[in-house]
Amino acid sequence: MIYMDMNRRSQANVASASRSYTSQPVVFLIAAALLLYGLSVAPQGAFAGGPESVADIAEKLQDAVVNISTTQTLKGSKGIPLPSVPKGSPFEEYFEEFFDRRRRQRGPRKINSLGSGFVIDSEGIIVTNNHVIEGAEEIVANFNDGTKLKVIKVIGRDKKTDLAILRVKPKKPLVSVSFGDSSKMRVGDWVMAIGNPFGLGGTVTVGIISAKKRDINSGPYDEFLQTDAAINRGNSGGPLFNMDGEVIGINTAIISPTGGSIGIGFAVPANTAAHVVDQLKKFGKTRRGWLGVRIQSVTDEIAESLGLDEPKGALVASTTPNSPAAEAGLEAGDVIIKFDGQEVPTMRQLPRVVARAGVDEIVDVEVLRNGEMKTFKVKIGRLEESDAEDKDSILGKEDDEKRLLLGLSISPITDELRARFKIDSSVKGVVITEVDSASRAAQENIKAGDVIVEVTQQKVASPDDVAKRVAEVKKSDRKNALLLLSDAKGDKRFVSIPIGE
Fold first, then answer.
1. Which of 66, 291, 330, 394 is the most buried (most CB within 10 A)?
2. For 482, which DSSP code?
3. Does the pLDDT value for residue 118 go beyond 60?
4. Class assignment of domain 408-498?
5. What is the pTM of this model?
6. CATH for 289-388, among 2.60.120.1440, 1.10.490.10, 3.40.50.150, 2.30.42.10?
């Protein structure tokens, strides 16, 4: 349609020029010359809206893309308790027959599902999404030539990136594809998706890269490529190719009110996938780096209170005891600006770069501390995946961004207050005893029982300490004072106080 619309527009322009030719011959000649010149120098495909054809590329790649079919048994639900019928009732026979049939229908049953995948090793290694095979009792890879191969082993899976590696045993070498460099892809580059939408069989769609580094809140390592190439149900796990036939993404998710493609699809970048796939092939599981800090975003207010020109980096709220960060000397209040030479523009960037760091590798971590840049040598640990969901993961979770304003009553921590608010014995500082219900602090969910641990990166032990530190900040012409708060259990977070209010 784009090609046709462009042609009609060109014809309309020529017709308009012809109508004015009799009265303005010079203008017509110039316009005609410019039009012909533009057509002669326009890049190939410019008026066609895309590459002339992807048939040759698709033909070479289709045999490497497979349909993944799975089977699993669903246990019958208990359902609603069935009523009893009095013995001897005229309806007893009918009730028993009806409900016996309902009980049989609620028994275990097998269900099938479909997805996509692709071969990365001619000896029989296939990549797909983890959610495609999750819970499956039997997995079969269906190839473009009609061959069906049962998956003999799930080599490994990673829920955080939604990837899984499968092994089949082919009688002859399979057609395979390789990963490309997804970092080289630019918004507007042409891409091609091959998969099995709606179980129809191998299907090719073409589009462009719509955006990069998309975060759709599906996990800590979100950095998706977004594409408008049609991706539908059954495309999950299939490859997204560049025009050189390299896999630059693995199609994983779409945004759609109907379940069908509306041109908003997401693919795991090849650079992320290749690293995970390599580890799954070697170890059967991932071996991610671990730093051992809890972090939060640097807001405009926090940036101002720290003397930063703009919000950037990841603010350390606390370090895990005996973690790589703690042993290297990182402290609460440090702002991580660079990790292993890579810029950390936002908090969410840090988990990704730490995860890719080698276990036991020593890296430089550059932080801003008390207005000065410092560099620490950190020996990266290994993230225990079993603890990642419940404990402090690679970096810990982001704490809610809150503001601590006036309207607070504070007091030294006494035994009575510690008992009243159930404050852990390890927590030291100044306790908040009351919050003015009309204050912004109350609106921002600052609670009685929270403990002020530091003010502008200096520990406080009394209300006088807090007042003194806030006064010093005010004299320095800063608009905000940075406070480190602890809850009763000892979990910490930073908040910024606008001093002028």
1. 291
2. E
3. yes
4. mainly beta
5. 0.61
6. 2.30.42.10
